[in-house]
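Hi R.,

Here's the input for the magnesium ion complex you asked about:
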Amino acid sequence: MTSEKTDQLLQTQWYRVSSRLKAELDESAFENWVKPIAARSIKGSEARISVPSRFMRDWVVANYLDRIRELWSAEDSGIQSVEVSVQPKLKAAAEAAPAPIEPEQPKAKATPTIVNGMDANGHISAPLDPRFTFSNFVVGKPNEFAYAAARRVAEAATVPFNPLFLYGGVGLGKTHLMHGIAWEILQRGPSRTVVYLSAEKFMYQFVRALREQNTVDFKEQFRSVDVLIIDDVQFIGGRDATQEEFFHTFNALVDQGRQIILSADKSPSDLEGVEERLKSRLNCGLVADIHATTYELRLAILESKAEQMQVSAPGKVLEFLAHKITSNVRELEGALNRVTAHAQLIGGEISLETTQEVLHDLLRANDRRVTIEEIQKRVAEHFNIRLSDMHSARRARSVARPRQVAMYLAKQLTSRSLPEIGRKFGGRDHTTVMHAVRKVDELRDHDTSFAEDVELLRRMLEG
Ligand code: ADP
Ligand code: MG
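And here is the predicted structure with magnesium ion in place:
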């Protein structure tokens, strides 16, 4: 292996180890202690890392070293020990080089000399995450269209549509799909130039070029690009000079038949602060959105991740997580990582009880996402009563029963107290809520169709 290759392997392994740590630790602990660590080398069965100060070394050794070693051995069974040294950061290098936790982009012709944030070919590309491949992407109803479009772009011999514009909420897989496209294109044609960068980075580079009166060079960089991938373009909105430049770069590349792939959290038409002519240009190709996950997709993703991580989590636990963590895939992954890490540290099995214990904060945060107002609205719609009847004093069973169901669901799905719930239902007493909860529980036991109604509502609300 060449030393360049070894270094790439080292960086990739460290990236994976630190990603696992990131999922296990508080954000601040990760930022303070893990992010500053640099992977240095692998000598035999020893991995060597460094930190910028002695104090940090002591802290890392005392608190994180065992776990780092464990995770590292799991990545590479040849690694048995990890050594931490102190190496004060060289400022210039720290600025020019990619963030230490990211692996070098394994591109055939990439060279590690970085001048002004560019590689030797004059390209500015951020590294690709080795985990974000098509084969690691789980396809389901909410993302099948975006996935098919991504594959099409990656596999087509000529540009099928330009640009491909992917959009959807946070943590739903946009970046993953874009990296997947890049990997696939590079695998099919290693000599092709694929540039992936965030819109923020694009702007940053452009502003710097302006400052250094170097915009000609900036433009030059994109001339020989075959595929340009820009992530999170919602950040371009409002910055006129950058938008202008983006527009020109975009047009020039499209005219030359180069493929452009963009992502954003909104559709082109909904992007704020973006000029009309750019919007209409963005709408010219194929616009594919990724929808919120469904329970089925979440479960499939968890099953796939568990298999990848080689952890045996009972089906019940995965179902529970798929049910409870509905926000996005990133959080879902984080939850599985935490549960797994806990079991590994404690040396126990993963069970429903430990899962609930380890994730209590996360579960509560997800619970809070359903509001009492939403519950009232859904329940009123379901039983065909007016929303105002949720607050009214009417006692006819046709409205009182749905109201009780709504109270019951409010108790089950939110972290509100009984008095708080009572207040939201036209200022009722907490004993009324308590009574409603008991009543609904009792009815569920005796009336199966009622029980199904309640279950259906609960599932809809949990989304
Ligand atoms: P976004 O860019 O849309 O905010 P990411 O692409 O960063 O989201 O995805 C967040 C995390 O969820 C990543 O770790 C990614 O691998 C994972 N992920 C998202 N969707 C899927 C999927 N369908 N299959 C497997 N992993 C996924
Ligand atoms: Mg992203």
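One thing worth noting: The two ends are 50 Å apart (CA to CA).

Cheers,
M.
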